[in-house]
Design a protein that fits this description.
By secondary structure, this protein is mainly alpha-helical. It is built from 23 helices and three strands. It has a three-stranded mixed sheet. The termini are far apart.
Length: about 500
Amino acid sequence: MKDNSVRTPVKIAVGIWVLALLYPANWLLTDEVDYDEGVQDSRVTDGDEQSALNGPIEVSVRGAEPPTEVQAAGRPKPKPILQPESERKLPESVVVAKGKQLFTMNCVACHQLDAVGKVGFAPSIGNRDFLSLATDEFIRQTIRNGRMGTAMAPRPDLSEQQLTAIITYLRSAPVANPVKVSVDWEKKFTGDAEAGADKYGRYCAACHGTKGEGYAAGVPGTGIGLPGFLSTVSDDYILQTLKLGRIGTPMQPFIGSRGLANLTESDGHDLIVYLRELGRKNVPGSDREMAVKGDPKRGKLHFDVNCIACHQADGKGKVGFAPSIRNRDFLAIASDDFIRKTIRNGRPGTAMVPRPDLAFQAVNDIIAYLRSLPIANPVEINVDSTLTFKGDPEEGTAKYTKYCAACHGNDGEGYLAGVPGPGIGLAGFLKSVSDDYILQTLRQGRIATPMKPFIGSKGIANLTVEDAHDIIARLRVMGEENAGGQAAGQ
């Protein structure tokens, strides 16, 4: 009789070793074990040489990260590869929460809480009928490209993941009596533009403006005759809107027996053909040459359509949200060209997006309006944009931390840090202002705001000009650091 007492443990040990080679344990792939990630494929390779197992072996391992490379026996254990958050499939509740946060930061000023909109100001994009007509891609492209001629500026700075989160949030709200509408995005209708003009004047102009310009005409409806709208919607999208309306808004159905005007589909086709004609007429020309001195009355209208959501009525601003741009000291320091470039170029890293779509004349009118607002005890401040100061950024770090960080953030990020002051350490701000602009601001402050003077005996910190130079040097370093961070995050 043979003694198997020794061979049995040996066989078991060999079997375990073979299994370990063929089915690598989760601890070979990552430092942590997560049994909730699901089943993923993993490969075992030996670089460019023949594998110790004569080629790669695909196996299913519960808890492993997505396909990752594990060196064969004898090689050093690699560092775990962590999957970027942007590539993981996050739970919908997490995506909705992110979307709500992004919506609050980027959209709520115009579209209001819960995306309910505001008549005469911004449409409801949480509306049942809008969401039934608009595809995710339609919403995505509208955010990314904006709506030319309106306050809906392009947002190419938002990532695909951020856009997805915003759309998921919009679609997450419970809807009573949901409807399903199929829109043909390729369909084009033929109709009579002249007949459409008559119907537009009777049924649409009162809400959307005689030229379809929308809010800019002081009417409650959107600019359905503007190229920015008409270039994004199909004929069938407009037809279905005429059939369905927008529940809970002044936009009622117009087609059919239940429609406000009992229009036929053929009437709808005439209206659509006329709108297309309006869109061609509303394309802006070369506006700089045609621009004249700004008109404050027109400027107020443009301001109310494009700026009031953030900068508030009369440009007085809101602490922790948007600066006062009708402030006496700001208007004394900022030249017309400075304001014009800020509107045109925006401030990267903030909600102040570029507005190259605004006509040069409209910008002139806005500036004229701001300068027409009554100011008590006006001051005159001269800024030399050519001056460059030589301060010590290391010295400036301590001074910034002591005097500036509480209001503007540790890294100068401003409102994003939940502080009351704007982002004076952001590249978008620092590229647009001279050293002397900052110096004069530290000297003058901003009357009737938390920004007090800091320089001299009347300053709250009694700083010297040299102290200010150090702070400015530190801000310039911050701008470079924050610009690098923004680029990396895109």
